[in-house]
Amino acid sequence: MSEEISNEQKDLVEKKDDDENLDKKTISTEEKLKDTEEKLLRSLAEIENQRKRFEKEIKDAFDFGGFNFAKETLAILDNLDRAKKSIKNDEHLSKNKDFDKFVKNIEIIEKDLISIFEKNKITKINSVNKKFDPNYHQAMLEIEDDKTEPGVIIQEIQPGYMFGDRLLRPSFVGVSKTKKDKNGEKSTKNEKK
Q: Do 138 and 96 have their domain in common?
């Protein structure tokens, strides 16, 4: 009988081992399935993020594709303005009978160019009498002025422009600063005499 028990025990042990191996295979298969599912979800999320990036790049290319062209075209507007000022200040040309017609034609071209800019979301930055902002302005000089609060733009040397919500070119400006007295100290507006 001891042999029978021993065989029965062996059968039970073998069955138990088989059940454990089956459980390990089942667990292993479930883990593999979960791992594969996680990888699939990560891949889908990555594809979605990449799609959104591409859409943004396409939108930016469409919206700002002409950025460099617009920046270079500003030189034409600057040169027209310089030409107009130069012609108006020339005494010899101002005596010419067609002087006013010539200046008027330059102004028409200038207005047309500005209109084209505005249709393409290129707008001038209004700087004079505004607080200096390094995001939009480039200070070229400081001007002593007691009548104006320090840090306010009182002169525009060259206008700046925006291309949509991007800075195309900063405004070159003169910024007010407080006057200094003879001793090199800042004067105050409420000095007592």
A: no
More confident residue, 92 or 12: 92
Condensed to tens digits (0 to 9), the pLDDT of residues 168-178 reads 999 999 999 88
Per residue in 135-148, pLDDT (tens digit) is: 999 999 998 888 88
Domain count, the chain: 3
Q: How far is CA 192 from CA 123, 145, 148, 178, in A?
A: 46, 19, 20, 17
Q: Pick from 120, 140, 161: which residue ends a domain?
A: 120
